[in-house]
Amino acid sequence: MLNDPTFLYVEDEPLSRKVMEMLLSRALGYKKVNIFESSESFIERVQQLRLGDGLLPTTDVGPLINEAQLRRVHGYTEIARQEGAKILTGGQIYTEGDCANGFFYAPTIFADVTPDMRIAQEEIFGPVAAVLTFKNIEEAVEIANDSLYGLAASVWTKNIDAAHKAARDLQSGVVWVNCFDHGDMTMQWGGYKQSGQGRDKCFESMLLHTQTKSVWIHLD
Question: Residue 146 sits in a domain of what CATH number?
Answer without folding.
Answer: 3.40.309.10
